[in-house]
Amino acid sequence: MVSSRPTYVEYIADPARSCAIVAHRGVWATAPENSLLAIETAIEAGYEVVEIDVRRSADGEFFLLHDDTLERMASLNLVPEQLSLEQLSRLRLRDRDGGVANRVTDQKIPSLKEVFALTRDRIFLDLDIKDNEMLPDVIACARAMGVADQVDFKADLKTRQDLAWILAAMEPHRVPFMAKTHLEASDADLQLELLFGLAPFMCEISFARLDQLADRKRLFREAGIALWVNTLDAVSSAGFTDTAARDDPEGIWGRLIDAGVLAIQTDYPDRLRALLDRRMRREAVGKGTPAMGALPSRG
């Protein structure tokens, strides 16, 4: 049966939508990160995108895990790529973000195929693939599972060599591609030239000052490039962090949205949802529409 849901590209391009909430490694506040339960929780909450980390096992299968070892999430000082998928799938994950302070759960390391089966036609996926050489095989897996238009693939677009690789390795597959551009870099002008020349559907962008985004808001919109910003504490830009957003969501997430950001990756998706709902209620009141309780989910 043909899905009535929009593709990832169609959803991102919809001018009527609000900022997309990207749940980093799923909702790991109540489940192990990168687990099926963390992803299902994000789906049930109505978030739009889940970010997951993808690696390849010793027998060539894809699985979800962020770290280079199994120590934090499974209490084993082993390299995960040296184990088979069957061995990995028996390992029980520690809760939340792992470590000895979190209990061992019944959740296991999931395969990418399990994730695709769970998420198909239910939520979009941001794939953080740990080795670019895996990209063609991950694309083939996504096509075989019927989710190729529901996931994104991403890579740096810093140099003309990066552009040549993207055109050779990604463009022929016709899958959603997100460029990674760094406005805080000394060669930001070149990176912007490459970005506007390629015009991907979305750009994961970092910056030194918010006006680097706000002053180009119209240009990004006219080029059809949606801006994605991470407010994760470890990879945020210019102090626009999740920690700061907990105390001042309007001053962090609100200012990003006003500057033209259309997708925000966060470890606090529930707090970002609360901000977006408050903004929608204020907008409804401003238009003379009665504000009757919480607005419906956008998921």
Name the CATH architecture: Alpha-Beta Barrel
CATH superfamily: Phosphatidylinositol (PI) phosphodiesterase
Overall mean pLDDT: 94
Under CATH, the topology can be stated as TIM Barrel
- Tell the overall outline: globular
* CATH classification class: Alpha Beta
Distance N terminus to C terminus? 21 Å
Give helix and strand order, one letter per element, not per position: HEHEEHHEEHEHEHEHEHHEHHEH
The domain tally reads: 1
Q: What's the total count of β strands?
A: 11
In DSSP terms (H or I, runs of 4 or more residues), the helix count works out at: 13
List low-pLDDT spans: 291-299
β-sheet strand percentage: 15-25%
Q: How would a crystallographer describe the biggest sheet?
A: 8 strands, parallel, barrel
Radius of gyration: 19 Å
Helix percent reads 25-40%
The chain-level structural class is alpha/beta
Q: Within the largest sheet, what's the order of strands?
A: 1-2-6-7-8-9-10-11
Word description of this protein:
By secondary structure, this protein is α/β, with parallel strands linked by helices. It has one domain: TIM Barrel. 36% of the residues lie in helices and 19% in strands. The chain contains 13 helices and 11 strands. It has helices at 8-13, 36-45, 71-74, 85-88, 112-119, 135-144, 160-169, 188-198, 211-214, 217-223, 242-247, 249-258, 269-286, and strands at residues 20-24, 49-56, 62-64, 92-94, 104-108, 124-129, 151-156, 177-182, 202-206, 226-230, 261-266. The strands form 2 sheets. It has an 8-stranded parallel β-barrel. Helix 6 (135-144) links the parallel strand 6 (124-129) and strand 7 (151-156). The longest helix is centred in the C-terminal third of the chain and has 18 residues, at 269-286. The radius of gyration is 19 Å and the shape is globular. Residues 291-299 have low confidence and may be disordered.
